[in-house]
Amino acid sequence: MSETPSKALVLTMLQHAEGFPWRMLDIGLMGLRLDDRREYRLHIWDPSCCLGEPPIHDHPYDFTSTIIAGEMTNVRYEEDPAGDEYVRFRYPLGAEENRRSDGVRLSSTAITFTEGSQYRQLSGELHASWQQPGTVTLIRCSWIAVPELTVCFQDAGSWRSGQGRDATRDEMKSFAAKALEWF
Prior knowledge:
Elements: H1 7-15, E1 23-25, E2 27-33, E3 40-50, E4 56-57, E5 61-69, E6 71-91, E7 100-114, E8 118-121, E9 126-131, E10 136-143, E11 149-153, E12 165-166, H2 169-180
Antiparallel strand pairs: 1-2, 1-12, 2-3, 3-10, 4-11, 5-8, 5-10, 6-7, 6-9, 6-11
């Protein structure tokens, strides 16, 4: 895969969503890897399926996100002594159980993106995102060797795993139906 798939191709994929190996994350995200190198991934978002507030987090890759359909707001966070207080968890990639925590103060900047927009996020940049139900995005990942990942919540009891699981048939139908409303 060398370029962004057309909206027509994504429409066809959504109309046959149950024929693909989608994965679910409890942040209201159903994702589909589009290549064996894990470089491209299609996302369908439904914030009503997010457990709690979207986590502030970083990634083990730089990425470019293209909004295929819908609308989303990406919020970037920076450490700021005058910012809001959060509990910061850090852990080695693939070893969430070895997490440690401390406090951090963060300030934020939000930008809203609509169909056809793109934004770039570097691996170590903290962010969170809010999407309209059914928003479809395509990310292109450039994997980076990072020593640890970071997730921040308003309180320590908000921790939840970032691990994915196979999507159920009902989830595929529900997410695809919401996405199709944008087409």
